[in-house]
């Protein structure tokens, strides 16, 4: 336990046989339960997880191998007490019957942690990039009652940013800006950071079973948290880069994440529209998007007229005016949106 709170750590893994052993072995003693989710690896990841689970402090028949189906697998029947009876970390090995992706593996761990009733569920990748000694920094804001969800932030200071490869740094910055708009958490950075913690209340308040399968799951999760009114804290957290290879396939990640962000933004706006049909942020966003679409349409008409030999200055002027109006509406919408969500972004 950590400050009278039970802690469950979810470790999703796919072909991490060379690293997952170190992650499991260096887990802090205050962690009560480790959900090691093998996403149908083709190397010896599953055998290593089983080996560590067999020697974990409280390994029992109920924490033996669980073959998880696409629906999330069997529920662990052992309940986690809210007292100090748990000694050491129990490793719960879970294996998917089929590969479900990074989000799918995390979803399975979340469902088990929620159903077992752990107070705080942590996610920690199996590639060794996340320092277990930093875990209290994620837990404290939740334990103190300041936040419902915390996440690592590798962009908080210059030394941490220098550790990140330039290509990842630029992509992370761009994705940060888009995720701010979609999620409403305007203070957050590094949205793809997989080192997170979530309270049992927040985990129970969102539809975790419908979390996306791929690497766009953090963006979708943030939208769900905002709609549920949960407070999110960014925690400065260094990352360790070694010779590991990213499992992200950008040919599928970029379009999938773009769709997730757009869908999440629309879901969040609809939730606000349903609560307040005259909400200024929703109205300004709608007006700005409509004006930009109008500007593009006018520009197309003007271009067609020019090609046909009937050029006119009216279309370019009208398109420019519509574009400026649209940009102005969007800036106002973002400002109002950021103001209204300021209380959900926690500074630590």
Describe it.
- The protein is of the alpha/beta class.
- The chain has two domains: 7-269, Alpha-Beta Complex (Spore Coat Polysaccharide Biosynthesis Protein SpsA, Chain A); 276-347.
- Helix content is 47%, strand content 13%.
- It is built from eleven helices and nine strands.
- The protein has helices at 20-25, 45-54, 101-116, 135-143, 158-163, 166-183, 200-205, 217-227, 250-275, 280-307, 314-340; strands spanning 7-13, 33-38, 66-68, 90-96, 120-123, 149-153, 196-199, 232-236, 345-347.
- The chain has a nine-stranded mixed beta sheet, sandwiched between helices.
- Helix 8 (217-227) packs parallel to helix 9 (250-275).
- The protein starts with 6 loop residues before the first strand and ends with a strand.
- The model is unreliable at 58-87 (pLDDT under 50).
Please name the defining characteristics of this protein:
348 residues, alpha/beta, Spore Coat Polysaccharide Biosynthesis Protein SpsA, Chain A, 2 domains, nine-stranded mixed beta sheet, 47% helix
